Amino acid sequence: MRLTIHSLTYNEHMSQSYVIDCLLEPIFWIVDNFAGNLGQVFVFCVSVLTTAVVLIAYWIGLPFWWQRDPYTTIFLVLFGNWLLLNIIFHYYKGVTTSPGYPPHGTMISEAASICKKCISPKPPRTHHCSVCDRCILAMDHHCPWLNNCVGYYNARHFFLYMVYMVAGVLFVIIFGFEIGFQVLWLYDPSANIPHNDPDLIGHPVRINQTGALIPIKDIVEYDSFNFPREHNLPVPVISELQLISSDPWKRKAVIFMAITCLSVFSALGTLVTWHGKNISRGETSIESHINAKLRKTPRNLYRNPYDFGRSKNWKLFLGLVQGRTFIRHILLPSSHRPSGNGLTWHTIHNVMEDWP
Questions:
Q1: How many CB atoms neighbour CB 312 within 10 A?
Q2: Which residues in 178-193 are b (16+ Cβ under 10 Å) and which e?
Q3: Roughly how many angstroms between the first and final C-alpha of the chain, as a whole number?
């Protein structure tokens, strides 16, 4: 029976990788058939979450900082809107910019191989996307949050969107930490004001016949001549933190902000670090896996032909060539395209040519 089972299930190509590929085949099928439709849902979710975070920051954070220091508030509003402008711009460009496709019906002299799915010439660094069902120039990966492939023409927008989003949520976390600490850590539900009435904060109170608490703002007493005495009762200052803690909707909004910002910071912060390392090595995410295997070859003789050194790799990726500057084209929104066409690539073996 053992021999029979082995003979019926024998596969010459059987290996651990082959078994994993077979087990993951249903997942690949779901991705190939539904990822394109789900991408529109993901883009909608990103837009809604970003809008919600911005509105809550204005609703809760702006009054809090304005009561504390108006001048600091003006700086925070300007700085925060600069981050928001870059986030919106690079996300829009990442979604709408074509990643770049090899031309069809023409001779591509630079072709390195033939795509087995497109049955067409495939230039160097080009890979086939199963979701888009076509080849992508300098493909990094298919991003469902962009509903688009990340490739030659939109990789910079994708990376800068993540950088500015991480900076934005870190900005919210730092300057909203005191609010979050008050609501999430110091808030005592048992000490909540009945009916969440801010008028009861800091005032003496009395209980009427119905059992309701009523603030005492005027105290009437009589002197020895039966004239009412005048009292100048100090009116306590009600802080924004007290108002936020006493409002159930604002407390829920702060909790939502804390969960969202910490999650986005952790996820995108990890991706920014990962992609930053790849950019420093002059490779895409797909190439990083391929090159990792090639580096394990005997004598470790492989060298990435597109690795020009960390400084030049970053300049090429960000497009800081041909007189472009970091302040104008990185710190401010810029739609400049990368130099080249994605079909022809310079390598470290072009020692006679200073490029770019």
A1: 15
A2: ebbebbeeebeeeeee
A3: 67
The domain spans of the chain are 32-331
Measured CA distances, 249 to 60, 63, 65, 173, 243 (Å): 11, 16, 19, 19, 11
The one-letter amino acid code at 295 reads R
Q: Which residues, including other chains, have CB under 8 Å from residue 134's CB and lie 6 or more apart?
A: 101, 118, 128
The one-letter amino acid code at 7 reads S
Tokens of 344: 């022809």
The angle that helices 155-175 and 248-280 make with each other, rounded to 10 degrees, is 140
Q: Which distant-in-sequence residues (6+ apart) come within 8 Å of 241 by Cβ? A: 64, 178, 179, 182
Q: In a structure prediction context, what are the per-residue pLDDT tens digits for the chain, which is 356 residues long?
A: 888 887 877 777 667 767 777 787 887 777 666 666 788 899 999 999 999 999 999 999 999 999 999 999 999 999 999 999 999 999 999 999 999 999 887 777 777 788 888 888 889 999 998 888 889 999 999 998 999 999 999 999 999 999 999 999 999 999 999 999 988 887 655 555 444 555 555 556 666 666 566 666 665 555 555 555 555 556 566 677 878 887 889 999 999 999 999 999 999 999 999 999 999 999 999 999 888 888 887 766 788 989 999 999 999 999 998 889 999 999 999 999 998 888 888 888 875 455 56
Active site residues: 143
Contact of 283 with 294, CB cutoff 8 Å: no
Rounded CA-CA distance 254/247 in Å is: 11
- Per-residue buried b or exposed e for 217-238, using 16+ beta carbons within 10 Å of the residue's own CB: eeeeeeeeeeeeeeeeeeeeee
Degrees to nearest 5, angle at CA 281 with 303 and 272: 155
Of 59, 55, 61, which Cα lies nearest the Cα of 175?
A: 61
User: Using an 8 Å Cβ cutoff, are 142 and 129 in contact?
Assistant: yes
* Maximum separation of any 2 CA atoms in the chain, in Å: 117
CA 33 to chain centre: 25
